[in-house]
Write a structure and sequence with these properties.
mainly alpha
Length: about 210
């Protein structure tokens, strides 16, 4: 009976494409399909695990220091542009044409005055004010033009009087009651007037050269 059972089992297994152990026998195409799926799954796993080549290349090829330098350079360019505008504005503001004043003409040398004369008194008063020969020369030329150093000189048109040609002559009373006859009083008043208006006799002389009066 066992032999007949064995014969039946072998016949059934043969008819169902099974092996003698009773397990289902796999066809060749199913094995190839399974192997392909396994291979694709393995490749996909490797690709997912590998880093992005583009990201890796970008990060590796551009050092951090280079990126920082690029940012600094861009800031430097921006600051340079702003500074350039500021310099342009300053350059425009600094274009100022200053008038060129002509130098005051030098007065001719007056020489040494005779003692006791009005010019000697004037030279002594200038020295007391710390002014030298250059200022004395200017004063001599100025009052030569105005009055010729005449204590009694009077301008018939304006009424100006004395060595400094005060207008009116009574202004010189602030320097002394004898303003009409004393050259020292007239000179003292005249020097005070020059200092208040022109600072120095040479300043008054330069103005007189340009305008004909002082």
């Amino acid at each position: 009976m066992s032999n007949s059972r064995t014969t039946i089992l072998r016949a059934r297994a043969k008819s169902q494409s099974a092996d003698i152990s009773g397990r289902h026998k796999r066809s060749s195409w199913s094995l190839r399909l399974f192997a392909s799926l396994v291979s694709l799954g393995f490749v996909a796993t490797l690709m997912m695990a590998a880093p992005d080549p583009v990201s890796t290349l970008s990060a590796a090829s551009v050092p951090v220091n280079s990126i920082e330098r690029a940012e600094v350079q861009s800031i430097t360019v921006a600051e340079g542009f702003v500074n350039e505008i500021a310099r342009d504005k300053l350059a425009v503001k600094e274009i100022v044409v200053e008038p060129v004043l002509p130098a005051a003409p030098a007065a001719p040398a007056a020489g040494v005055p005779d003692p006791g004369t009005a010019q000697a008194i004037a030279k002594s008063m200038l020295a007391a004010r710390g002014m030298g020969t250059d200022q004395y020369n200017c004063l001599v030329s100025l009052w030569n033009r105005e009055s010729g150093w005449n204590v009694y000189a009077m301008n018939s048109s304006s009424g100006a009087y004395g060595i400094p040609q005060a207008l009116p002559g009574s202004k010189m009373a602030t320097a002394g009651a004898d303003w009409a006859t004393n050259p020292a009083t007239q000179i003292a008043w005249g020097l005070s007037y020059i200092e208040g208006r022109y600072a120095t006799p040479c300043g008054a002389w330069a103005y007189s050269e340009d305008n004909g009066w002082y």
